[in-house]
Each structure stands twice: as C-alpha cells, then as structure tokens.
Amino acid sequence: MDLKLDNMDVDMDPKGQPPLPLIIAFDVSVSVDVEHAKIKGFLGALRWVAPEVGTRNGPIQMSYSPILADCWPCGQMILYFQENLKERGDGSRGPVLDRLRGQLVSNIPESRPSLTVVLDGYRRAGVKRRLTEADEGYKSKSRCI
C-alpha cells in the first residue's frame, strides 16, 4: 500500500542478468490472502495512491482491494521510467508497455490486469525476466507487482 519510487531499489547483477526491481519498505503494508479481499482507510503516499483509496483528509472511502490498489502506482512508475528513458534516447519499449500502463492506472480497479498479464506484457515488450530463488514460492500467490 505504499509502492513508490522511494520504496524501490534495483539489484544490478554483475553477470549481465537483467536488473531486479526490489520493494524495500513495508511500513504500511497489509497482508491479504486473495485479490478480492477488501480493506478500508487511507494508506500510502499522496502522489502514488490509487484513486479508490481516497485522500488522507478526505471523506471515508468504501472498502477496496489493496492488491488492485497497488497496481495503480505500478502504472505510474512505468510512466516515470518511460519518460526518463525517452529523455535519454532509449525509447519507451513501444505500444505494449503503453497499453499495459494504461490498464494499470485505470480508474476502475477491477479492470486492472493480473500479475500474469503484466509479466506477459513485459515479455512481449522485450524485457527479460531475472529469476530468483523466491520465484518458486511466489508464483501461486502474487497477482500484481
């Protein structure tokens, strides 16, 4: 519930494997067993919080899926990195990531893609996946980045 650039790091493998993005802060994380589980209350950083979460001082919001709410800042981060890559002349990796980003930042949480769709989109865009020891344990549990 607090995905943002400040809470991310990248492990650069000296052996030439693709960079591995890491979530490094879990202060306001919540644990749910299934994607459709719901929580209430504002969590997160204002610029990076999904619309359904509301605002820190705003009216009480309806319950929402923290899994789907975490998809929204993932789309915002893709936009941030695409803009920085374009400035460096590296391109945006094309329409696949543009479409994926658009789906992740949908104002309708249920229309945001699952982790499987996100990973497939990255592969179609030519982003190689770096496998870790943790991959086996998380394959059946994760739905979004």
Tell me the major beta sheet: 2 strands, antiparallel
Beta strands, count: 2
SSE order? EEHHHH
Mean pLDDT: 78
Fourth CATH level, the homologous superfamily: Transferase(Phosphotransferase) domain 1
What is the CATH topology assignment?
A: Transferase(Phosphotransferase), domain 1
Put simply, the count of helices is 4
Rg from Cα: 16 Å
Describe the structure.
There is one protein chain. With 145 residues, the chain is mainly alpha-helical. The chain has one domain: Transferase(Phosphotransferase), domain 1. Helices cover 32% and strands 6% of the residues. The protein contains four helices and two strands, in the order ββαααα. Helix 1 packs antiparallel against helix 2. The longest helix has 23 residues. The termini are close together. The C terminus is likely disordered.
Summarize the structure.
32% of the residues lie in helices and 6% in strands.
Task: Supply database-style keywords.
globular; two-stranded antiparallel ribbon; 145 residues; disordered C terminus; mainly alpha; Transferase(Phosphotransferase), domain 1; 4 helices
Could you give the topology of this structure?
Layout: E1 8-11, E2 20-23, H1 66-88, H2 95-104, H3 115-124, H4 135-138
Antiparallel strand pairs: 1-2
Helix pairs in contact: 1-2
